[in-house]
Specification:
alpha+beta
Length: about 130
């Protein structure tokens, strides 16, 4: 086995990865967590949206950073893109098939992504 092959790590299936992301959010006490399964929705930009909110810009940044840190450390996966960390009213963390949206409550209400993608299958998670 060459060193390039040894360095490649198998990316977990969607359920395992979404569950890990949910756990990362719950670590930092993220609230109102939902998963939108967009796989059956035509023209969807990804397979899943995971949406949550934080009570402050500090908490929102901490949630996004925890997701990035744990996925990198635990499974060697880095996001393809992150944005919004400057203002932390809406931070997006893009893992291609899964896009995580971490909102400030008023920003989440304004953009209402759940309503925009209401054809998706929605799973709600209890606040811990």
């Amino acid at each position: 086995m060459d060193t390039n092959t040894a360095e490649l790590q198998k990316v977990p299936d969607s359920d395992t990865l979404t569950n890990l992301i949910i756990d990362c959010i719950q670590d930092i006490k993220g609230q109102n967590i939902v998963k939108l399964d967009l796989r059956e929705v035509g023209e969807a930009p990804t397979d899943f949206f995971i949406i949550c909110e934080g009570e402050s810009t500090t908490q929102i940044s901490a949630i996004a950073n925890n997701i990035h840190k744990r996925l990198k450390e635990e499974i060697g996966l880095s996001p393809s893109h992150r944005e919004g960390l400057q203002s932390s009213k809406w931070v997006l963390v893009d893992y291609f098939d899964i896009v995580v949206h971490v909102f400030y409550p008023e920003t989440r209400e304004f953009y209402d992504i759940e309503d925009l993608w209401s054809d998706a299958s929605i799973t709600e998670y209890q606040n811990l």
